[in-house]
Design brief:
The chain has 203 residues and is an alpha+beta fold. It is globular and about 50 Å long. It has helices at 54-63, 66-72, 135-149; strands at 6-12, 15-20, 26-28, 37-42, 80-82, 85-89, 92-95, 98-101, 105-109, 111-115, 118-126, 131-133, 157-168, 171-181, 190-202. The chain has a 7-stranded mixed β-sheet with strand order 4-15-14-13-11-10-5, with helices on both faces. Strands 1-2 form a two-stranded antiparallel sheet.
Length: 203
């Protein structure tokens, strides 16, 4: 696939499509500036480092108010929280020059927060990979965009947040990346809003 510059997109119902142009489907994580790297003091709980599941990664980031600081610059903010769910939807959008049409495409949304009309969709991963498949964020983004367009949700803005965690000795380092899409019909229109790194320091 790398040699042929191709990637695979799921279309739903067990169908897939080969698309030319890997750059249109994978996005490299941006470098985090030194000014956006913070030492975050915390009191370790029993389950903080218990496992390395995606759910645990997002729970740690939320329980330690890191997400609140990063997204809202307010550790006492009280966003509504919606846990992992799966849903299916028909989608139509573009990737590069290709038009993609899906039917009953199943997508998994790891975590969702809403505050003052801003919906943020989360994806969590272990380690610090160089890049990620954009559809992981775009499909849920498109899902909520459709609901907004149909006036089923009163939404001001839709963003996505990628949370990465790497364990170091008895602690962790978390990197957060907040994205949106400038064109809800074009998967390659991903845009970074901000990013930051939090080094968990035990009290």
């Amino acid at each position: 696939l790398l040699k042929e510059d191709c990637f695979i997109l799921h279309l739903g119902g067990g169908r897939h499509k080969f698309i030319k142009g890997i750059k249109n489907s994978y996005h490299s994580f941006e470098k985090i500036n030194e000014n956006d790297i913070f030492d975050w003091k915390y009191r370790k709980s029993i389950l903080n480092e218990f496992d390395t599941s995606e759910s645990n990664i997002l729970s740690v980031a939320s329980n330690q108010r890191i997400i609140h600081d990063f997204l809202y610059e307010d550790i006492v903010a009280s966003p509504k929280v919606y846990n992992a769910r799966r849903t299916k939807m028909n989608l139509s959008y573009r990737v590069g020059k290709e038009k993609i049409i899906t039917q009953n495409l199943q997508m998994e949304i790891d975590y969702t927060m809403e505050l003052r009309g801003v919906i943020t969709i989360f994806e969590g991963k272990n380690g610090f990979p160089e890049n990620f498949a954009v559809y992981q964020l775009f499909h849920p983004f498109k899902y909520y965009s459709i609901l907004k367009e149909k006036k089923k949700l009163d939404v001001e803005q839709i963003t996505c947040c990628y949370v990465l965690r790497k364990k170091e000795r008895e602690s962790s380092v978390l990197r957060l990346y907040n994205y949106t899409f400038e064109d809800e019909n074009y998967m390659s229109s991903i845009k970074l809003l901000k990013n930051a790194q939090y080094n968990l320091i035990k009290r």
